[in-house]
Amino acid sequence: MRRVLTTLAAVGMLAAACGTDDAPITGSPGGSGDDIVIDIGGEDVVLTSSLSGFDSCDGLLDHLRQEGADRVGPWGFDNGWYGGWWPVDGPIALEAELSVDDASGDFDSSGAASTESQGDDGTASLAEGVDFSGTNVQESGVDEADIVKTDGERLYIVANGELVIVDVATRAVVGTVKVPHGDRAQLFLDGDNLLLINQGWFEGGFGITEDADAEFASDIAVGYGGSRTTITRITVDGNTPRIIETLSAEGDYVSARAVDGTARIVVRSNPQYNFPFVYPQNESGEERAEESNRDALLDSELTDWLPSYTLLDANGSETGDGLLVPCEQVHAPTEFAGFGVLSVLTIDVDGDIKPGNTSSVLAPGEVVYASTDSVYVATTTWFDLDTLDVARDQIVENVTTSVHRFDISSDSSAAYTASGSVEGIIRDSFSFSEHNDHLRVVTTTGNSWDETSESFVRVLNEVDGELVEVGTVGDMGNGEAVQSVRFQGDVGYVVTFRQVDPLYTIDLSDPTNPVVRGELKIPGFSSYLHPIGDGLVIGVGSDADEENGRVTGSKVSLFDVGDLDDPQEIATWIGPDSWNNVGWDTHAFLWWAPENLAVVPINTWDNGQQWAGVVLLRVEDGSITEVGRIDHADDSIVAGQSECREVTAEDLDAADQVEFESEIAYMVLEGYALLLDCEEGEAHAASGFECHDEPWINEDAARAGFDAEGTLVSCWPIGDGVPQISRSIVLPDGELWTVSSPWGWLGGSNPARLQVNDLTTFDRLDAVNL
To answer: Residue 529: left (phi > 0), alpha (psi -120 to 50), or beta?
Structure first.
């Protein structure tokens, strides 16, 4: 039996294709239309990859109503499964990201998007990468939105719900403006213009309604108050920031990139929260609930499916509203591809916000990558579990990723040109690279937890409307999961991990015949790779024991990859009992090439005390040397100070110290919490800690034979006590500025601290609390 299933599609900057009202989904533009077929459980499954558009709103609405009504059940849209969501060992980044490869494929070892700030006479005064550092980006020449930006003279950051301007020379706040509330604020900077992107929520959140007549269903239906993305254009006159206009749109902010002052902002929305679905209280109500839900979909309007927007002026007055994307700029796979809408807005940082410059696809988005000429979108297969009676592990073994290309080489809207499919899943945008008209993709097939996984580098080329695989090489990381990928011109680097870290070097000079040239096995793994020139690559990640792969701390490696046949780890720095999140937040890493200095944020535990800050590593002459550490601890506060007596190992029974029969033994001996014995009149508190007086602690102590003099109190480190540094910036006059916030979350709504240290001595010079 041959069954037609579907693939997810996600896209940025799509161009419209033509269709008809009777058949709103058209064939693949320019493609051959050939199906890709795989065998799962003895059944042929057809994977369709092409995208098409609509030529009218009526045709689009008919399509949406029918697709929804055909697939809704008594519990809403929950009968499908996306292969890419199956858990795998190691982190899988589902956040869509845009990145652009420079035309030459060469990597700027500064890791920054090269810009210059302008003096009053319009001449270049300070150069990024020479006088100051910028955001650590994936591709040279492409900016990435971040919580903090600078032109070397002023620093811009969002903290406590405000855009704050700090003068670098005086280290003083010189301007602020209230901005829309949100929990994930990021900025673009272009001259005196800023674009602020923020993730927030519409007032009211999720609504609750009652249906007295639907005794077969629950009395709660979900209405979408839901998430929103706000995009605010701000201009700076002198030191005075002024809001020009704000776009508020339905959906989650995913990611953004900017090239030559044009930002592309990815927003993902989920229409299922817009429908008044009812849910059965028991099995007998399922049929009626499904019927009611189907009727709701057949009565739906476009506003239920597509994200809406509101445009506000500087005074907060509404100047426009409607659907975020025009109907003719909505695309869908030729077969149903799951519920969700991915929209990409194109906005000039110094220009008006035009909601019509948006394109969308009717599918949830996962990973987006862009070169200077193309946007590529990757999504994994959507399987209808009601129509395919096979075990999930069989599906996982056959997961296929669809890839779609859109031409962005002209100033007009991007045009869909080709689609293809590759076996396996893709980790994140770093797994992509376009070079010399070929797309290189790293995929993993099988399962790492049962040691059937294998990773590949696949090379695709566009031929007559199809992305055709023209070369591939595998046999990498068998039984392991991909931890990091980096491409640099004709060379690729892949790191996998299970017990040891194989670093693979891949020669891609002949795209039809990629070759794994070298393999280096070492303990631990690198979750981020940063080329620094001269055949050297820095790897930031974790150390691990060789016996079972247990992570034991942070690790920074220096790899010599000058000889692809014989890559070597020539130097390491290891931080025992510490961790870093550079693999998740690459903006947290700083490489300052003029000083051969790497700045890596770490957290560590030592006898129950948490330390957080950055480690400064000098990388030169084939070595890594720790030359300093910086933290944001307030010198006036001694962490752990208390009126109460601290419980120590000497207070515990000797047997309990060995057998760990009580929770307090773990707390005291392992040091993951501070335990206090507080007598009457003493404050149940410790500086830098959050303390709790809980009865179970005293009960546990009594069982362990520990006779407290007063009341036992458990205390846990708090963010305010141990600020987490998340950004490091080199600024003129030999200064290193670092940014911290409680728990390291620079979301824009919480406080932040700027600290200035000397770039040579690393002595603290000043601090600004925001």
So the answer is: beta
* Six-digit token string for 166: 């700090």
Nearest 5°: CA angle at 478, between 473 and 482? Answer: 80
Phi, psi of 70 (to 5 degrees): -70, -20
For 450, other C-beta atoms within 10 Å of its C-beta total 11
The residue among 346, 414, 434, 457 whose CA lies nearest residue 139 is 434
Beta bridge partner(s), residue 341: 269
Beta strand extents in 145-250 (DSSP E only): 148-150, 154-159, 162-167, 172-178, 186-190, 193-201, 207-209, 221-223, 227-237, 240-250
Which residue in the block uniquely carries the two structure tokens 């309604």?
209
| The two structure tokens encoding residue 396 | 């996982």
Please state, in angstroms and rounded to a whole number, the distance separating the CA atoms of residues 592 and 538: 13
Please state whether 66 falls in left (phi above 0), alpha (psi between -120 and 50) or beta.
Answer: alpha
Residue 336 CB-half CA count within 13 A: 18
Q: Which amino acid is at 622?
A: G
Question: Cβ distance 367 to 268 under 8 Å?
Answer: no
pLDDT averaged over 10-residue windows placed end to end, the chain, 770 residues: 31 32 31 47 54 87 89 73 37 34 40 50 73 91 91 94 95 94 91 94 44 33 63 95 95 84 84 80 86 90 92 93 90 72 86 87 74 74 55 63 74 68 87 93 84 92 89 92 92 85 93 96 92 96 83 94 96 93 93 97 80 95 96 74 88 64 79 87 81 82 80 76 87 95 78 94 93
Write out the two tokens for 501: 């870290």
Residue 647 in contact with residue 657, Cβ under 8 Å? no
Q: Are 406 and 423 in contact (CB under 8 A)?
A: no
DSSP 362: S
The rounded distance, in Å, linking the Cα atoms of 494 and 623 is: 22
Beta carbons within 8 Å of 274's beta carbon, 6+ residues apart: 223, 224, 303, 304, 305
What one-character DSSP code corresponds to residue 58?
H
∠ CA 125-128-129, rounded to 5°: 130
Cβ pair 205, 174 in contact under 8 A: no
pLDDT for the residue numbered 11? 33
pLDDT at residue 495, as a whole number:
93
Residues with Cβ within 8 Å of residue 761, at least 6 apart in sequence: none
d(CA 619, CA 627) in angstroms, rounded, equals: 10
Instruction: Classify 349 as helix, strand or coil.
Output: coil
Per-residue pLDDT, 44: 55
pLDDT value for 699: 83
Residue 125, exposed/middle/buried by CB under 10 A (0-12, 13-18, 19+)? middle
Contacts of 213 (CB under 8 A, 6+ apart): none
Q: Could you tell me the CA-to-CA distances from 10 to 76, 463, 768 in Å, in that order?
A: 22, 21, 42
Provide the residue type at 274 as one letter.
N
Which pLDDT belongs to residue 539?
A: 96
- The three-class DSSP label of residue 509 is coil
- How is residue 759 written in tokens? 């770039």
Helix (H, G, I), strand (E, B) or coil at 329: helix
Q: Name beta bridge partners: 576.
A: 553
Cβ neighbours of 622 (radius 10 Å): 11
**How far is C-alpha 442 from the chain's CA centre?**
18
Q: Tell whether the torsion through CA atoms of 314, 316, 320 and 321 is positive or negative.
A: positive
The candidate with the shortest Cα–Cα distance to 673, out of 719, 721, 724, 714, is 714
Residues 139, 144, 148, 153, CA torsion sign? positive
676 forms beta bridges with 646, 713
Burial of 46 per CB tally in 10 Å (0-12, 13-18, 19+): middle
Backbone torsions φ then ψ of 465, nearest 5 degrees: 80, 5
> Of 24, 22, 28, nearest to 9 (Cα)?
28
Q: What span, in angstroms and rounded, lies between the C-alpha atoms of 534 and 109?
A: 10
Q: What is the distance, to the nearest Å, from the Cα of residue 122 to the centroid of all Cα atoms in its chain?
A: 36
